[in-house]
Amino acid sequence: xxxxxxxxxxxxxxxxxATPTLAQSALETVQDAGVLRIGTEGTYAPFTYHxxxxxxxxxxxxxxxxxxxxxxxxxxxxxxxxxxxxxxxDANRYDVVINQVGINEERQAKYDFSExxxxxxxxxxxxxxxxxxxxxxxxxGTRAAQTLTSNYGKxxxxxxxxxxxxxxxxQSIALVLxxxxxxxxxxxxxxxxxxxxxxxxxVKIAATQEDAxxxxxxxxxxxxxxxxxxxxxxAEIKEDGTYADISERYFGEDVSQ
Length: 257
What we know:
The protein is α/β, with parallel strands linked by helices. The chain folds into two domains: about 25-120 and about 215-250, 3-Layer(aba) Sandwich (D-Maltodextrin-Binding Protein, domain 2), CATH 3.40.190; about 120-210, 3-Layer(aba) Sandwich (D-Maltodextrin-Binding Protein, domain 2). The protein has helices at about 1-20, 25-35, 60-70, 85-90, 105-110, 150-160, 170-180, 190-195, 225-240, 240-250; strands spanning about 35-40, 50, 55, 75-80, 95, 110-115, 120, 120-125, 145, 160-165, 185, 205-210, 215, 220. The strands form five sheets. The protein has a five-stranded mixed beta sheet. It has a three-stranded antiparallel beta sheet with strand order 11-8-12.
């Protein structure tokens, strides 16, 4: 009788050992920890930067906090330089990266992305009193203030403009305002941020390209539940008006598309 009981116990033990333990999903791990670890630069205004009090703020920071809240956890930001930011996902230093990471085929081959949460377009910027340039085609024969090696500089040349070399966005805008250049092609998000800071600067967008570059939340592949939860959170943020409020505060525009 004792032998039978021993054999039965041994059989149950073997069965228990043979039954695989179901691993936690990435979403469950995040929820158990109570935090969503977010990799970000902290030096890239207006998306992720420190204000005068030293607090981490920015468009991407607020989006990250809203996502975490809707997943039911706190946002925990881990700051680091851009060059090593995405690699931090591989090293499990954080769960996601929210830092204006552009969605492209090369990154999609190795990582998953959420649905896009922000769009950037090429914007043609001119003085407010300029009535001659209303489209990219109107650049032919004009002077465009551009950094020589940028894609926007090449675009201006393709439309027939003479490029006036500059060192960046601020100088390009300054040359347009001074009349030393007729226009500049630049990132729409940079322009919205500039106009938000200087609403009376006297420049406007004459046209934007239809095609946009989109950014999303980046995370490691193989985490479908976490990815779905992030996408659901983003959808909620847009549906309940939270996204519009954040977008208006930082850009004065809807920058989702």
